[in-house]
Amino acid sequence: MSRRQLKKIFVIDTNVLIHRSDAILSFKDSEVVIPLWVLEELDKLKTYSDERGRNARQAIRFIEERTAHNGHKEGAKIENGSILRVALEFDRSLASDLPLDRNDNKIIYCALTIQERISTIKPKPEVFFVSKDINARVKARAVGLHAVDYEKQKAYLADLYSGFRDASVSRELQRQLSAGKTVDWEEPLLENQFLVTADDAGSPHIARYQTDSEGKGTLRYVESFTDGVSGIIPLNPQQQMAFDLLLDDSIALVTLVGKAGTGKTLLALAAGLRKVMESKAYNRMLASRPIMPLGKDIGFLPGDKEEKLSHWMKPLFDNLELIVSVNTRPEFKNIEAVMKSGKVEIEAITYIRGRSLPKQFIIVDEAQNLSPHEIKTIVSRAGKETKVVLTGDPYQIDSPYLDSDSNGLTYLVEAFKGQKIFGHVTLEKSERSRLAELAAELL
To answer: What is the end-to-end Cα distance of the chain in Å, rounded?
Structure first.
Protein backbone atom coordinates (compact mmCIF):
# COMPACT_ATOMS: atom_id res chain seq x y z
CA MET A 1 0.00 0.00 0.00
CA SER A 2 1.59 3.31 -1.09
CA ARG A 3 1.13 6.71 0.46
CA ARG A 4 -1.05 7.65 -2.48
CA GLN A 5 -3.51 5.00 -1.33
CA LEU A 6 -3.31 5.96 2.36
CA LYS A 7 -5.87 8.40 3.66
CA LYS A 8 -4.33 8.95 7.10
CA ILE A 9 -0.89 9.03 8.71
CA PHE A 10 -0.69 8.78 12.50
CA VAL A 11 2.48 9.95 14.27
CA ILE A 12 2.53 8.37 17.72
CA ASP A 13 3.91 10.06 20.84
CA THR A 14 5.71 8.05 23.54
CA ASN A 15 2.98 8.41 26.16
CA VAL A 16 0.45 6.63 23.93
CA LEU A 17 2.60 3.48 23.99
CA ILE A 18 3.14 3.88 27.73
CA HIS A 19 -0.63 4.06 28.16
CA ARG A 20 -1.18 0.99 25.97
CA SER A 21 1.75 -0.93 24.53
CA ASP A 22 -0.20 -2.27 21.51
CA ALA A 23 -1.91 1.04 20.72
CA ILE A 24 -0.47 0.83 17.19
CA LEU A 25 -3.09 -1.80 16.33
CA SER A 26 -5.85 0.73 16.99
CA PHE A 27 -4.99 2.60 13.78
CA LYS A 28 -6.26 0.45 10.91
CA ASP A 29 -5.52 0.76 7.19
CA SER A 30 -3.23 3.73 7.74
CA GLU A 31 0.44 4.57 8.07
CA VAL A 32 1.59 4.52 11.69
CA VAL A 33 4.82 6.40 12.29
CA ILE A 34 7.07 6.00 15.33
CA PRO A 35 9.61 8.86 15.48
CA LEU A 36 13.15 7.78 16.36
CA TRP A 37 13.03 9.90 19.53
CA VAL A 38 10.05 7.87 20.79
CA LEU A 39 12.29 4.78 20.72
CA GLU A 40 14.93 6.69 22.68
CA GLU A 41 12.40 7.60 25.35
CA LEU A 42 11.11 4.02 25.50
CA ASP A 43 14.69 2.86 25.91
CA LYS A 44 15.09 5.09 28.98
CA LEU A 45 11.81 3.90 30.47
CA LYS A 46 12.31 0.17 29.88
CA THR A 47 14.35 -0.27 33.08
CA TYR A 48 11.52 1.00 35.30
CA SER A 49 9.84 -1.68 37.43
CA ASP A 50 6.40 -0.07 37.29
CA GLU A 51 3.66 -0.07 34.66
CA ARG A 52 5.57 2.44 32.53
CA GLY A 53 8.58 0.14 32.35
CA ARG A 54 6.49 -2.91 31.49
CA ASN A 55 4.62 -1.09 28.73
CA ALA A 56 7.87 0.38 27.37
CA ARG A 57 9.41 -3.09 27.09
CA GLN A 58 6.29 -4.53 25.49
CA ALA A 59 6.07 -1.65 23.00
CA ILE A 60 9.72 -2.09 22.01
CA ARG A 61 9.20 -5.82 21.44
CA PHE A 62 6.01 -5.11 19.48
CA ILE A 63 7.81 -2.72 17.13
CA GLU A 64 10.87 -4.96 16.75
CA GLU A 65 8.85 -8.08 15.93
CA ARG A 66 6.89 -6.32 13.18
CA THR A 67 9.77 -4.43 11.58
CA ALA A 68 12.52 -7.05 11.91
CA HIS A 69 12.26 -8.23 8.26
CA ASN A 70 11.38 -4.95 6.59
CA GLY A 71 13.39 -1.79 6.12
CA HIS A 72 12.30 0.92 8.52
CA LYS A 73 12.30 3.46 5.71
CA GLU A 74 9.70 1.60 3.66
CA GLY A 75 7.74 0.36 6.66
CA ALA A 76 6.25 -3.02 7.48
CA LYS A 77 2.74 -4.25 6.77
CA ILE A 78 1.14 -5.32 10.07
CA GLU A 79 -1.88 -7.45 10.94
CA ASN A 80 -4.46 -4.64 11.06
CA GLY A 81 -3.77 -3.60 7.47
CA SER A 82 -1.58 -0.62 8.35
CA ILE A 83 2.05 0.16 7.56
CA LEU A 84 4.31 0.60 10.58
CA ARG A 85 7.40 2.75 10.08
CA VAL A 86 10.14 4.20 12.27
CA ALA A 87 10.73 7.77 11.10
CA LEU A 88 14.05 9.61 10.89
CA GLU A 89 12.60 12.69 9.14
CA PHE A 90 13.57 15.98 10.67
CA ASP A 91 13.78 19.22 8.72
CA ARG A 92 15.65 21.75 10.84
CA SER A 93 14.42 24.59 8.66
CA LEU A 94 10.95 24.01 10.14
CA ALA A 95 12.21 24.05 13.73
CA SER A 96 12.11 27.77 14.29
CA ASP A 97 9.71 28.11 17.22
CA LEU A 98 10.35 25.32 19.73
CA PRO A 99 13.74 24.54 21.31
CA LEU A 100 15.33 21.29 20.15
CA ASP A 101 16.85 20.26 23.47
CA ARG A 102 13.72 18.24 24.30
CA ASN A 103 12.60 15.02 22.65
CA ASP A 104 8.97 16.14 22.88
CA ASN A 105 9.68 19.00 20.48
CA LYS A 106 11.72 16.80 18.12
CA ILE A 107 8.80 14.35 17.93
CA ILE A 108 6.44 17.23 17.07
CA TYR A 109 8.79 18.52 14.37
CA CYS A 110 9.13 14.99 12.98
CA ALA A 111 5.35 14.97 12.46
CA LEU A 112 5.51 18.46 10.93
CA THR A 113 8.29 17.38 8.55
CA ILE A 114 6.19 14.42 7.38
CA GLN A 115 3.24 16.73 6.84
CA GLU A 116 5.35 19.09 4.72
CA ARG A 117 6.96 16.33 2.62
CA ILE A 118 3.64 14.77 1.57
CA SER A 119 2.11 18.11 0.59
CA THR A 120 2.56 17.32 -3.12
CA ILE A 121 0.80 13.93 -2.96
CA LYS A 122 -2.68 13.87 -4.52
CA PRO A 123 -4.94 13.11 -2.79
CA LYS A 124 -2.99 14.35 0.22
CA PRO A 125 -3.17 12.05 3.28
CA GLU A 126 -4.16 13.63 6.58
CA VAL A 127 -1.41 13.69 9.22
CA PHE A 128 -2.43 13.28 12.86
CA PHE A 129 -0.15 13.78 15.85
CA VAL A 130 -1.45 11.42 18.57
CA SER A 131 -0.52 12.18 22.17
CA LYS A 132 -1.97 11.84 25.64
CA ASP A 133 0.06 14.83 26.79
CA ILE A 134 -2.21 17.89 26.70
CA ASN A 135 0.72 20.31 26.52
CA ALA A 136 2.26 18.41 23.59
CA ARG A 137 -1.07 18.57 21.72
CA VAL A 138 -1.32 22.33 22.31
CA LYS A 139 2.24 22.87 21.01
CA ALA A 140 1.60 20.63 18.00
CA ARG A 141 -1.48 22.63 17.03
CA ALA A 142 0.51 25.84 17.45
CA VAL A 143 2.99 24.76 14.74
CA GLY A 144 0.23 23.67 12.36
CA LEU A 145 -0.41 20.01 13.13
CA HIS A 146 -3.72 18.21 13.64
CA ALA A 147 -3.22 16.92 17.20
CA VAL A 148 -5.57 14.39 18.82
CA ASP A 149 -5.81 12.38 22.02
CA TYR A 150 -5.65 8.58 21.99
CA GLU A 151 -9.29 7.71 22.67
CA LYS A 152 -9.46 3.97 22.10
CA GLN A 153 -10.25 3.24 25.75
CA LYS A 154 -12.33 6.26 26.69
CA ALA A 155 -15.69 6.31 28.45
CA TYR A 156 -17.07 9.80 28.88
CA LEU A 157 -17.78 10.60 32.52
CA ALA A 158 -20.65 12.96 31.66
CA ASP A 159 -22.53 9.99 30.17
CA LEU A 160 -21.35 7.39 32.70
CA TYR A 161 -23.87 4.73 33.66
CA SER A 162 -25.15 5.58 37.17
CA GLY A 163 -26.52 2.14 38.08
CA PHE A 164 -30.00 3.40 38.95
CA ARG A 165 -32.95 5.41 37.68
CA ASP A 166 -36.19 6.82 39.03
CA ALA A 167 -39.49 5.16 38.16
CA SER A 168 -43.20 5.44 38.90
CA VAL A 169 -45.01 2.24 39.83
CA SER A 170 -48.53 1.40 40.90
CA ARG A 171 -49.49 1.24 44.57
CA GLU A 172 -50.10 -2.50 44.23
CA LEU A 173 -46.65 -3.12 42.78
CA GLN A 174 -45.13 -0.96 45.50
CA ARG A 175 -47.00 -2.98 48.13
CA GLN A 176 -45.79 -6.27 46.70
CA LEU A 177 -42.19 -5.07 46.59
CA SER A 178 -42.36 -3.73 50.14
CA ALA A 179 -43.70 -7.09 51.28
CA GLY A 180 -40.51 -8.68 50.01
CA LYS A 181 -42.00 -10.27 46.92
CA THR A 182 -40.21 -10.59 43.58
CA VAL A 183 -42.39 -9.07 40.86
CA ASP A 184 -42.28 -9.27 37.07
CA TRP A 185 -40.99 -6.25 35.17
CA GLU A 186 -41.40 -5.99 31.40
CA GLU A 187 -39.56 -2.74 30.69
CA PRO A 188 -35.98 -3.64 29.63
CA LEU A 189 -33.29 -2.53 32.03
CA LEU A 190 -29.64 -3.38 32.48
CA GLU A 191 -28.79 -6.34 34.68
CA ASN A 192 -28.54 -5.29 38.37
CA GLN A 193 -29.80 -1.79 37.64
CA PHE A 194 -31.77 -0.22 40.50
CA LEU A 195 -35.18 1.45 40.34
CA VAL A 196 -35.98 4.16 42.88
CA THR A 197 -39.68 4.69 43.59
CA ALA A 198 -41.49 6.84 46.13
CA ASP A 199 -44.51 5.99 48.28
CA ASP A 200 -47.39 8.36 49.08
CA ALA A 201 -45.35 9.96 51.85
CA GLY A 202 -42.46 10.61 49.48
CA SER A 203 -40.13 8.07 51.09
CA PRO A 204 -37.82 6.34 48.59
CA HIS A 205 -38.02 2.60 47.96
CA ILE A 206 -35.45 0.66 45.98
CA ALA A 207 -35.68 -2.46 43.82
CA ARG A 208 -33.03 -4.26 41.77
CA TYR A 209 -33.64 -5.58 38.27
CA GLN A 210 -32.46 -9.06 37.32
CA THR A 211 -33.30 -11.62 34.65
CA ASP A 212 -33.78 -15.35 35.09
CA SER A 213 -32.31 -18.12 32.94
CA GLU A 214 -35.04 -17.55 30.36
CA GLY A 215 -34.41 -13.82 30.14
CA LYS A 216 -37.54 -12.86 32.09
CA GLY A 217 -37.12 -9.58 33.98
CA THR A 218 -37.96 -9.26 37.67
CA LEU A 219 -37.66 -6.67 40.44
CA ARG A 220 -36.49 -7.54 43.94
CA TYR A 221 -36.94 -5.21 46.90
CA VAL A 222 -33.72 -3.86 48.45
CA GLU A 223 -33.69 -3.78 52.24
CA SER A 224 -32.78 -0.62 54.14
CA PHE A 225 -30.03 -2.21 56.27
CA THR A 226 -31.26 -0.34 59.35
CA ASP A 227 -29.34 -2.76 61.61
CA GLY A 228 -26.13 -1.77 59.88
CA VAL A 229 -23.30 -3.70 58.24
CA SER A 230 -20.30 -4.11 60.54
CA GLY A 231 -21.80 -1.23 62.50
CA ILE A 232 -22.19 1.05 59.47
CA ILE A 233 -25.75 2.18 58.60
CA PRO A 234 -26.44 3.52 55.08
CA LEU A 235 -27.47 7.18 55.10
CA ASN A 236 -29.02 7.52 51.64
CA PRO A 237 -30.55 5.36 48.87
CA GLN A 238 -27.31 5.05 46.90
CA GLN A 239 -25.52 3.66 49.96
CA GLN A 240 -28.33 1.10 50.32
CA MET A 241 -27.78 0.07 46.70
CA ALA A 242 -24.05 -0.24 47.33
CA PHE A 243 -24.57 -2.56 50.31
CA ASP A 244 -27.04 -4.65 48.31
CA LEU A 245 -24.38 -5.28 45.63
CA LEU A 246 -21.49 -5.66 48.05
CA LEU A 247 -23.26 -8.32 50.13
CA ASP A 248 -24.53 -10.34 47.15
CA ASP A 249 -22.08 -13.18 46.51
CA SER A 250 -23.45 -13.71 43.00
CA ILE A 251 -22.06 -10.29 42.01
CA ALA A 252 -18.35 -10.85 41.40
CA LEU A 253 -17.44 -7.30 40.38
CA VAL A 254 -18.72 -4.07 41.96
CA THR A 255 -17.75 -0.49 41.14
CA LEU A 256 -18.54 2.49 43.36
CA VAL A 257 -17.94 5.94 41.89
CA GLY A 258 -18.44 9.19 43.75
CA LYS A 259 -16.86 12.39 44.99
CA ALA A 260 -15.01 12.71 48.28
CA GLY A 261 -17.07 11.88 51.37
CA THR A 262 -19.75 9.77 49.70
CA GLY A 263 -18.66 6.68 51.67
CA LYS A 264 -17.27 4.52 48.87
CA THR A 265 -14.32 3.09 50.80
CA LEU A 266 -16.14 2.85 54.12
CA LEU A 267 -19.04 0.87 52.63
CA ALA A 268 -16.69 -1.51 50.79
CA LEU A 269 -14.60 -2.19 53.91
CA ALA A 270 -17.68 -2.67 56.12
CA ALA A 271 -19.17 -5.18 53.68
CA GLY A 272 -15.83 -6.96 53.28
CA LEU A 273 -15.41 -7.32 57.05
CA ARG A 274 -18.89 -8.78 57.41
CA LYS A 275 -18.30 -11.28 54.62
CA VAL A 276 -14.91 -12.33 55.96
CA MET A 277 -15.23 -12.04 59.75
CA GLU A 278 -18.92 -12.81 60.29
CA SER A 279 -20.47 -14.87 57.49
CA LYS A 280 -17.05 -16.30 56.43
CA ALA A 281 -18.10 -16.31 52.78
CA TYR A 282 -14.51 -15.40 51.83
CA ASN A 283 -11.19 -16.49 53.30
CA ARG A 284 -9.70 -13.02 53.49
CA MET A 285 -10.27 -9.35 52.69
CA LEU A 286 -7.48 -7.76 50.65
CA ALA A 287 -7.62 -3.96 50.50
CA SER A 288 -5.30 -1.99 48.24
CA ARG A 289 -4.75 1.30 46.49
CA PRO A 290 -2.30 2.49 43.82
CA ILE A 291 0.88 4.15 45.07
CA MET A 292 0.34 7.52 43.45
CA PRO A 293 0.83 10.29 46.02
CA LEU A 294 0.84 13.85 44.75
CA GLY A 295 4.16 14.29 42.97
CA LYS A 296 6.18 11.57 44.72
CA ASP A 297 6.53 7.82 45.08
CA ILE A 298 6.87 5.98 48.41
CA GLY A 299 10.68 6.13 48.17
CA PHE A 300 10.66 9.53 49.88
CA LEU A 301 8.84 8.12 52.92
CA PRO A 302 10.83 6.90 55.94
CA GLY A 303 11.25 3.26 57.01
CA ASP A 304 11.13 -0.14 55.36
CA LYS A 305 8.44 -1.37 52.95
CA GLU A 306 5.81 -1.95 55.67
CA GLU A 307 6.45 1.44 57.26
CA LYS A 308 6.41 3.20 53.89
CA LEU A 309 3.11 1.54 52.94
CA SER A 310 1.53 2.37 56.29
CA HIS A 311 1.75 6.08 55.39
CA TRP A 312 0.18 5.70 51.95
CA MET A 313 -2.43 3.19 53.16
CA LYS A 314 -3.46 5.42 56.09
CA PRO A 315 -6.87 6.28 54.54
CA LEU A 316 -7.76 2.57 54.58
CA PHE A 317 -6.65 2.25 58.21
CA ASP A 318 -8.69 5.36 59.10
CA ASN A 319 -11.84 3.76 57.73
CA LEU A 320 -11.09 0.46 59.46
CA GLU A 321 -10.62 2.30 62.77
CA LEU A 322 -14.04 3.93 62.34
CA ILE A 323 -15.69 0.56 61.68
CA VAL A 324 -13.95 -1.03 64.68
CA SER A 325 -15.03 1.88 66.91
CA VAL A 326 -18.75 1.34 66.18
CA ASN A 327 -18.73 -2.47 66.13
CA THR A 328 -19.49 -4.46 69.29
CA ARG A 329 -18.44 -7.93 68.12
CA PRO A 330 -15.51 -9.43 70.10
CA GLU A 331 -13.35 -9.97 67.00
CA PHE A 332 -13.54 -6.20 66.41
CA LYS A 333 -11.94 -5.35 69.76
CA ASN A 334 -9.36 -3.08 68.12
CA ILE A 335 -7.70 -2.64 64.73
CA GLU A 336 -4.60 -4.54 65.86
CA ALA A 337 -6.75 -7.59 66.64
CA VAL A 338 -8.42 -7.33 63.22
CA MET A 339 -5.08 -7.15 61.40
CA LYS A 340 -3.52 -9.98 63.46
CA SER A 341 -6.48 -12.26 62.73
CA GLY A 342 -4.99 -13.00 59.31
CA LYS A 343 -8.38 -12.26 57.76
CA VAL A 344 -7.48 -8.75 56.61
CA GLU A 345 -4.52 -7.70 54.47
CA ILE A 346 -3.68 -4.22 53.25
CA GLU A 347 -1.25 -4.18 50.36
CA ALA A 348 -0.08 -1.89 47.54
CA ILE A 349 -1.32 -2.60 44.02
CA THR A 350 2.28 -3.19 42.93
CA TYR A 351 2.49 -6.35 45.02
CA ILE A 352 -0.77 -7.89 43.77
CA ARG A 353 0.53 -8.42 40.23
CA GLY A 354 1.32 -12.05 39.50
CA ARG A 355 -0.67 -13.41 42.43
CA SER A 356 -3.62 -15.78 42.15
CA LEU A 357 -6.33 -14.71 44.59
CA PRO A 358 -9.08 -17.34 45.15
CA LYS A 359 -12.03 -16.85 47.52
CA GLN A 360 -11.06 -13.36 48.57
CA PHE A 361 -12.90 -10.07 48.97
CA ILE A 362 -10.64 -7.63 47.10
CA ILE A 363 -11.06 -3.87 47.45
CA VAL A 364 -9.11 -1.48 45.22
CA ASP A 365 -9.45 2.10 46.43
CA GLU A 366 -8.58 5.16 44.29
CA ALA A 367 -9.01 3.02 41.16
CA GLN A 368 -9.40 6.16 39.02
CA ASN A 369 -5.59 6.41 39.08
CA LEU A 370 -5.24 3.16 37.16
CA SER A 371 -5.13 2.79 33.38
CA PRO A 372 -7.52 0.43 31.56
CA HIS A 373 -4.66 -2.04 31.16
CA GLU A 374 -3.85 -1.91 34.88
CA ILE A 375 -7.52 -2.44 35.76
CA LYS A 376 -7.60 -5.46 33.45
CA THR A 377 -4.48 -6.87 35.11
CA ILE A 378 -6.00 -6.53 38.60
CA VAL A 379 -9.45 -7.93 37.77
CA SER A 380 -7.85 -10.85 35.94
CA ARG A 381 -6.09 -11.79 39.21
CA ALA A 382 -9.45 -12.79 40.68
CA GLY A 383 -9.56 -16.52 41.36
CA LYS A 384 -12.54 -18.78 41.91
CA GLU A 385 -15.21 -17.39 44.28
CA THR A 386 -13.41 -14.04 44.56
CA LYS A 387 -15.22 -10.70 44.63
CA VAL A 388 -13.55 -7.53 43.35
CA VAL A 389 -14.68 -4.06 44.44
CA LEU A 390 -13.29 -0.93 42.74
CA THR A 391 -13.89 2.50 44.25
CA GLY A 392 -12.82 5.94 43.11
CA ASP A 393 -13.52 9.53 42.18
CA PRO A 394 -12.80 10.20 38.46
CA TYR A 395 -12.52 13.93 39.19
CA GLN A 396 -9.50 13.39 41.45
CA ILE A 397 -6.79 11.89 39.23
CA ASP A 398 -3.08 12.17 39.98
CA SER A 399 -1.73 10.37 36.91
CA PRO A 400 -0.43 12.86 34.29
CA TYR A 401 -1.71 10.81 31.34
CA LEU A 402 -5.18 9.88 32.60
CA ASP A 403 -8.29 12.00 32.92
CA SER A 404 -11.91 11.58 33.96
CA ASP A 405 -12.73 9.93 30.63
CA SER A 406 -9.66 7.76 29.97
CA ASN A 407 -9.01 6.20 33.38
CA GLY A 408 -9.55 2.48 33.94
CA LEU A 409 -12.42 2.83 36.41
CA THR A 410 -14.83 4.66 34.11
CA TYR A 411 -13.73 2.49 31.19
CA LEU A 412 -14.55 -0.68 33.14
CA VAL A 413 -17.99 0.62 34.20
CA GLU A 414 -19.02 1.17 30.60
CA ALA A 415 -17.47 -2.11 29.43
CA PHE A 416 -19.13 -4.29 32.08
CA LYS A 417 -22.57 -2.68 32.45
CA GLY A 418 -25.33 -5.19 31.76
CA GLN A 419 -23.31 -8.24 32.82
CA LYS A 420 -25.00 -10.56 35.32
CA ILE A 421 -22.00 -10.67 37.63
CA PHE A 422 -21.45 -6.88 37.64
CA GLY A 423 -23.09 -4.08 39.58
CA HIS A 424 -22.40 -0.35 39.76
CA VAL A 425 -23.59 2.63 41.78
CA THR A 426 -22.67 6.29 41.44
CA LEU A 427 -22.81 7.80 44.91
CA GLU A 428 -23.98 11.40 44.71
CA LYS A 429 -24.35 12.76 48.25
CA SER A 430 -21.39 13.49 50.51
CA GLU A 431 -22.04 12.29 54.06
CA ARG A 432 -18.68 13.24 55.58
CA SER A 433 -19.71 16.75 56.58
CA ARG A 434 -21.36 19.83 55.12
CA LEU A 435 -17.92 21.40 54.76
CA ALA A 436 -16.57 18.38 52.84
CA GLU A 437 -19.62 18.39 50.55
CA LEU A 438 -19.22 22.10 49.77
CA ALA A 439 -15.49 21.64 49.14
CA ALA A 440 -16.16 18.81 46.68
CA GLU A 441 -18.75 20.94 44.85
CA LEU A 442 -17.15 24.38 44.87
CA LEU A 443 -13.39 23.89 44.78
So the answer is: 52
